[in-house]
Amino acid sequence: GAGVSQSPSNKVTEKGKDVELRCDPISGHTALYWYRQRLGQGLEFLIYFQGNSAPDKSGLPSDRFSAERTGESVSTLTIQRTQQEDSAVYLCASSSRLAGSTDTQYFGPGTRLTVL
Amino acid sequence: GESVGLHLPTLSVQEGDNSIINCAYSNSASDYFIWYKQESGKGPQFIIDIRSNMDKRQGQRVTVLLNKTVKHLSLQIAATQPGDSAVYFCAERGTNDMRFGAGTRLTVKP
Lengths: 116, 110
Prior knowledge:
The structure holds two protein chains of two kinds. Chain A is built from no helices and ten strands. Chain A is mainly beta. Chain B is mainly β. In chain B, strand 9 and strand 10 (98-100) form a beta hairpin. In chain B, strands 2, 4, 5, 9, 10 and 11 form a six-stranded mixed sheet that branches. Chain B has a five-stranded antiparallel sheet with strand order 1-3-8-7-6, with no helix packed on it. Chain B has one domain (4-109): Immunoglobulins (Immunoglobulin-like, Sandwich). In chain B, 0% of the residues lie in helices and 55% in strands. Chain B is built from no helices and eleven strands. The A-B interface holds A 4, 33, 35, 41-43, 45, 48, 50, 56, 58-59, 91, 93, 102-110 and B 32, 34, 36, 41-46, 49, 51, 89, 91, 93, 96-103.
């Protein structure tokens, strides 16, 4: 596609429910990133995928958070047993991450998650 | 630990004036920096980048300055327009991620 797409754009859920967020990166981009952005704050790194390598999960805040990516395509971020503090915008970005590239990340519009 | 931060959380300028948004970083090993613009309800959008072997880089109406001596990065916007109103983030490339500051909200007054 022309850019990074994310779905849903908005998600309202009840505390304790599981949610799944989807990211479709730019075609051909080998790297994919998930970030969390709380209201009025900066971006918090969550997880990074690069090709078929093991993902860098160092930013995941708890074991309730997990993410998967199939090859170099779509990724899903799953939050289990959601808590109110999980309410935020979840942003996905992709980059070409080729040797010699500047690794510019292109962001999707985000999914706004509200946990009631 | 290493961090990227911004000096000012908000900046208000008159339409037509020049804007300067500042950023401080502490990781002297960082070799690449990006400025992003985030409009309300949208994801961050790439504006301009600079490598650590450069002091200055210009784009269309925007200039990024890098002062490695004091670990300072700035974004200059010439002839600021209402469409420039947004939150601006500087980002520093780490090992596997970009580290973002909290952002500066730029408001352009007509």
